[in-house]
Amino acid sequence: MALSGPATLYVGLLVAAPLCILIAYSLWTQTYVSVDHTLTLANYREAFTDPLVRYLMIRSILIAGAVTLVTVALAYPIAYFIALRARRKTLWLLLITIPFWSSYLLRVFAWKLILGFNGVLNSALLGLGLIEEPLAFLLYNEFAVVLTLAHAWAPFAILPIYVSLQKIDTSLLEAATDMGDSAVQRFRRVTLPLTIPGIIAACLIIFIPTVGDYVTPSLVGGSDGKMIANLIQVQFGAANNWPLGATLSLLAMLSVGFVAIVFVLTASGLGRRIR
Amino acid sequence: MNRPSGLAIYAIAYLVFLYLPVLFLPLFSFNDGTIVAFPIKGWTLEWYRQLGGQTALINALVNSLIVGLLAAMLATSLGLFAARAYVRYQFKGKQASEGLVMLPLVIPGIIVASSMLVLFISIGIKPSLTAITLGHTFLALPFAVSILKSAFDDFDPSLEEAAYDLGSGVVETFRRVTLPIVAPGIVASFLVTFTVSFDEFVLAFFLSGNETTLPVYIWSQIRFPAKLPNTLALGSLLLLASVALLFIAEYFRRRSSKPSTGGTT
């Protein structure tokens, strides 16, 4: 239909065109100030042999995986509470989503202030007499990155799980109880399997963007918490090696896609087995 | 219903975890000291007062407003057509088109940013406010489409048919029937897409040339500990603005999905 044309075309063009140009760039090479347009796989060779690239790529995927696990595990009970227990659902949903509308940059910045050596948390603990000297392990490591990302992406995990819980026909739950299932059995055999699609959606919505997050590792990651996005930004910025940056972007996209597909297949297989 | 206690306590603890970190920004923006730590030395409005005199900040704010308004206008217009098509008509490739339009939500920010940069450079658009506006339109489109889709969902097509039967033309029907019913949805979409653009950082960071937007300005200030109190004051004002916009958007979104304004069934 013609009406959806402009929007589809706009997104389509802005997805397809940059992708083609990225591929082209990844086959070129940077020679000091100009780009050499001879086609070569040199950037890919460099990306695959450089231990730093492999290290950052694997770490980004592990950090994003940890964030996904923590966020979804913490979000499930909330989604369950709002969908099946809470009386004022809309109010709860609104309360959950408000923080998401505040600037992402500022939310990450807030964590930097909280976790700092002379920061909010350390000064509060010192003031209360709970610690003798400031805790140094709070900021500038993977822990800080996972904590900050888990906080920033919380609403995204709650909503898909909430929707899948909301869709459950309550007569199924009643039937399970009537057949003698305990609350735990009923949850494991009825509720959980029926919400697998919501859990998968929540995982993907969090995992995919967090692999490529730039702000959080830059602000709270320190040198131990850097991720692949930091390396990509350096190529487009200070290092001025766009061909390598394009190659890394493409490889990051492929890795994320690969992990996501493997995850979806495994998770839906598991879901079928529980049932 | 006799044992909501455990879950309810968890839910409240979760809300505290969600809100507390952000609330430290406004709290310390009134602190009469340059170090962000307890105890609070005293209360002051000095940091807010100083903001007014910073021209770089005012420029960044104006840039952000321009980019936000244009991106919101573009995304909402594109979204309006698309949402109507998705809700009202069946056509080939509808699912593919709907999926594609939602794609910007799930592409990692760094990949959108780097690929837009190479695209714009290749077609001759220098890093500028124009480039940021085009990029933000892309990022905001999924939000516009999903809000406007729900606005059209609650809209009974027979109202338009009635207008045609009573002799109204296409334009008149759109102006007198369609637009008034969908208007709250349009306002909600406009406010939400504006907020998306106004708060966006990574793309603007890659695509800004000499002119920066507010988040890029804040990024440049975060590095200077001496500027910290000012950054906190500015950040608190931004938080307030975002939340206010969201509440107004929510008000219009609710109005748009009230059955009394739309369906007759």
Give an overview of the whole structure.
The complex is a heterodimer of chains A (275) and B (265). Chain A has a single domain (45-274), classed as MetI-like (MetI-like fold, Orthogonal Bundle), CATH 1.10.3720. Chain A is 74% helix and 2% strand. Chain A contains 14 helices and two strands. Chain A has helices spanning 5-26, 42-49, 51-85, 89-97, 104-115, 120-127, 142-152, 154-166, 170-178, 183-194, 196-211, 215-220, 228-236, 242-274; strands spanning 29-31, 34-36. The longest helix of chain A has 35 residues, at 51-85. The radius of gyration of chain A is 23 Å and the shape is globular. Chain B is mainly α and 265 residues long. Chain B has two domains: 1-44; 55-261, MetI-like (MetI-like fold). Helices cover 74% and strands 0% of the residues of chain B. Chain B is built from eleven helices and no strands. Chain B has helices spanning 5-29, 46-51, 55-88, 94-102, 109-122, 129-153, 157-165, 170-199, 202-207, 214-222, 228-256. Residues 259-265 of chain B have low confidence and may be disordered. At the A-B interface, helix 1, helix 3, helix 4, helix 5 and helix 6 of A face helix 1, helix 3, helix 4, helix 5 and helix 6 of B.
